[in-house]
Amino acid sequence: MVQFHIQADSDIPASTQLFNQIRFAIASRQYPPGHRLPSTRQLAMQTGLHRNTISKVYRQLEELGIVDAQAGSGIYVRSQGDEGGIHASSPLFQQYPEAHKLVQTSLDELLKQGCSLNQARELFLAEIDWRLRCSARVLVTAPQQDIGAGELMAKELEQALQTPVQLVPMEELDQILAQTRSGTVVTSRYFIGEAEKIAGPKSVRVIPVDIYDYSQEIQTITKLAPGSSVGLVSLSSGILRAAEVIVHSLMGDDILVLTAQSSDEYKLNAIVRAAATIICDQASYDAVKSAIQSARDDLIRAPQILCCENYIGTKSVNLLKRELGLE
Q: What is the CA radius of gyration of the chain?
């Protein structure tokens, strides 16, 4: 069960702390699509917050299209984009017996609706042809104000998929999609609602990817002694904002948290001199190492660097490969 921590004496509103922690749990797949979120009563007991505050957070999540409220049942993580079809399997039925059953069931349903075998064949082939066309062009999108997160996704996907990936700011996505007949838009669950609104009316798939859950990094932070200082470095300003809130929710004022984008040389140099531990993403690692090297004569002891393995979850990358027909 995911545990949420609220620092009552923090300058960050309690609702913001809870909102960021729940959104992180969903984006990192700790709460997968279809998962029922804790009731307001359960969260009130765990966090000490008033149920009205928790209801407000749930309404915010619902307005962003992240969760669905089902009357009399609860709050559920919404299935987003085209993820429902990401488990499509090969037609080699002897090798994939479950796929065979699925195809049979789908075909039987079409026949029950009055569709002929030839028409069913056309429908299947049209869907396959469309998906192949979509796979030929992969677009990664993120809002301009957090384009660093998009850069991380694009870098990792291009390396993992071994195929060209185009990074498109969310604000330009509509214009780019107007110039193409097909494609696949990939983004994290943080931005899926905005991407779907733009790409939904067009012949384009939108596939959300899960971010890494940072469990190792969080464990390291929780083990730091009171009074320790930790630096967070990333390409993405949005990742840094969310990470700072989550770390503060976990540790309060017990540790000092410093953040910097890897392109901000001044702040990065300050972190190198002040932090005992620096956590960074792969794209920022060289910049952190270079800053430490430049400051080596001023350092009594070089900070420990903990480089995150990735931003996108490994399972999500593998499923995306399968969906794009790359494995």
A: 22
CATH number of domain containing 260: 3.40.50.980
Q: Note the pLDDT of residue 85.
A: 44
**Dihedral sign of CA atoms 153, 157, 158, 160 in order:** positive
DSSP per residue, 270-318: HHHHH-SEEEE-HHHHHHHHHHHHHTGGG-SSPPEEEE-S-SB-HHHHH
pLDDT in tens, 163-196: 888 999 999 999 988 887 667 899 999 899 999 9
Residues 85 and 204 in one domain: yes
- Does 103 lie in the same domain as 44? no
Helical pair 314-323 and 147-161, crossing angle rounded to 10 deg? 60
Long-range pairs for 143-148: beta carbons < 8 A, 24 or more residues apart: 143/169, 143/170, 143/171, 143/191, 143/194, 143/238, 144/169, 144/170, 144/171, 145/237, 145/238, 146/236, 146/237, 146/238, 146/239, 148/234, 148/235, 148/236, 148/237, 148/238, 148/239, 148/261
Mean pLDDT, range 205-220, rounded to an integer:
89
Res. 297: pLDDT tops 80: yes
Q: Are residues 63 and 18 in the same domain?
A: yes
Whether 159 is in a domain gets the answer yes
Residue 86 has pLDDT above 60, yes or no: no
For the beta sheet containing 184-188, the strands, ordered from the edge strand earlier in sequence to the opposite edge, are 165-169, 138-142, 184-188, 205-209
Are residue 257 and residue 187 in the same domain, yes or no?
Answer: no
Mean pLDDT value of segment 250-276 = 94
* C-alpha distance across the termini of the chain, in Å: 34
pLDDT tens readout for residues 131-165? 555 455 789 999 999 999 999 999 999 888 888 88
Beta 165-169 vs 67-70: how paired, if at all?
unpaired
CATH of the domain at 20: 1.10.10.10
